[in-house]
Amino acid sequence: QVQLESSGGGLAQAGGSLRLSCAYSGRLFNLYQLGWFRQAPGEDREFVAQITWSGGTTVYADSVKGRFTISRDAAKNSFYLQMTSLKPEDTAIYYCAAAAQNGAGWSYWGQGAQVTVSS
Q1: Phi and psi angles of residue 94, each rounded to the nearest 5 degrees, phi first
Q2: Distance (Å) of CA 82 to CA 1, 43, 65, 107
Q3: What pLDDT does residue 103 have?
Q4: How far apart are the C-alpha atoms of 39 and 76, rounded to whole Å?
Q5: CA distance 30 to 107
Q6: d(CA 45, CA 93)
Q7: Please, are residues 72 and 82 in contact by the beta-carbon 8 Å criterion?
Q8: How many CB atoms lie within 10 A of CB 25?
Q9: What is the rounded CA–CA span in Å between residue 42 and residue 62?
Q10: What is the maximum alpha-carbon separation in the chain?
Q11: Tens digit of pLDDT per residue, the chain (119 long)?
Q12: pLDDT given for residue 11 in this prediction
């Protein structure tokens, strides 16, 4: 099993910045991808960004491209989502997630962190 614990987030004004962190632990040997998703009130959960376990490849949703950066610190067993130029529509609960190499997709999820952006 893999455990994910997210932290960070909070309240920011439009144009501001926030950083989310996700610490992972457990059986890590089979992980190949780490990511962030978000869910706004009344909406489905949507993909935000992902990074390969090696850190070599990142992918972003069009809505955050150029504003958000996903990164990983292997020494700290953590990965991050740096959010800049925030917009009110970025308001959501953000979830970190991990995928293993077993083809099961995003199997592991953190508890969620609230991000609220005021206009």
Answers
A1: -105, 135
A2: 27, 23, 12, 23
A3: 77
A4: 27
A5: 12
A6: 9
A7: no
A8: 11
A9: 21
A10: 43
A11: 899 999 999 999 999 999 999 999 998 888 899 999 999 999 999 999 999 988 889 999 999 999 999 999 999 999 999 999 999 999 999 999 999 887 788 999 999 999 999 99
A12: 97
Residue 63 CB burial class (10 angstroms; 0-12, 13-18, ≥19): middle
What's the pLDDT score for residue 118? 97
Residue type present at position 83 = M
State the amino acid at position 49 in one-letter form.
A
By C-alpha distance, which of 88, 52, 50, 48 is closest to 64? 48
DSSP per position, 75-116: GGTEEEEEE-S--GGG-EEEEEEEEETTS--EEEE---EEEE
Q: Which of 50, 48, 28, 52 is nearest to 40 (CA)?
A: 48
| Residues in Cβ contact with 86 at an 8 Å cutoff, skipping those fewer than 6 apart | 12, 13, 14, 15, 16, 17, 18, 67, 115, 117
